[in-house]
Amino acid sequence: MQKLKGKVAIITGSSRGIGRAIAERLARGGASVVLSSRTKTALDEVVREIQVQGGSASAIALDLRLPDAPARLAEFALKTYDRIDIVVNNAGATKRGEFAQLSDEDWADGFALKFFGAVRLIRAAWPSLKASSGSVLNISGAGGRTPGAAFTIGGSVNAALLSLTKALAELGIRDGVQVNTINPGTVRTGRLQLRLAEIMKQKGIDLLEAEKEFIRSPSITRIGEPEDIAGLAAFIVGPEGRFLQGALIDMDGGSTKTI
Ligand SMILES: NC(=O)c1ccc[n+]([C@@H]2O[C@H](COP(=O)([O-])OP(=O)(O)OC[C@H]3O[C@@H](n4cnc5c(N)ncnc54)[C@H](OP(=O)(O)O)[C@@H]3O)[C@@H](O)[C@H]2O)c1
How far is the CA of 147 from the centre of ligand 1 (A)? Predict the structure, then answer.
């Protein structure tokens, strides 16, 4: 059954990885999806793929770090489909590395995309979400609750998103807008392949051994797939997840040990 039929969903960072999987999953659920990232060719391919499967999709290429880009994205969705029901803030690309080597620009860049991009898109879409009794879903990250020296920027950005989620969830009670967050743990996307390649090089081992090594130290069940996160996203923004409000859900194979 198409539980999202008639809904319009914006998904940021949807040209690949988790965002693409969420877009495809929501489209299979019957939603018309609005895709966005910086790369037009990659977006067009995802749009085509969704349309071939019988779904409805359109895309706009934008750099969401630019202050006016989120509002342009919301306008594009309204112009194309005349309503907005779901906003998934997924785009993010924070730099990892030694704290002392990370510059002000690195920090500003990380916050510009994942935090301010989300703030600005939610603000631009809120009146439409209020009108449609819609839903905001932020894709944060396990590092928000479990910070680490190797990802000071990512952890801080994700923690800020968790706080924003709780605050806007309260506003959402007043305005009839659902607001929640998923914290993915390690998920098999292009970013993970780069980290595995580093381990292979450092230890002189093959990919299979690198994956085993990777899941041994933080003790997790397995590496996640983008579709794992997409399935939970579809549940949260669908009718069965509607009672969730201000929830910060860890989907991470057990890596988060805090309560
Ligand atoms: N994968 C994981 O293990 C993991 C774990 C925890 C949290 N997360 C979070 O989950 C989200 C998705 O991660 P992912 O691994 O799927 O990432 P990914 O494969 O690197 O995809 C990132 C997406 O964001 C887009 N993007 C990057 N910079 C952008 C910009 N300036 N403006 C607009 N779009 C931009 C990318 O497209 P373009 O490059 O074409 O713009 C792409 O569509 C991120 O917020 C990440 O922090 C991921």
Answer: 19
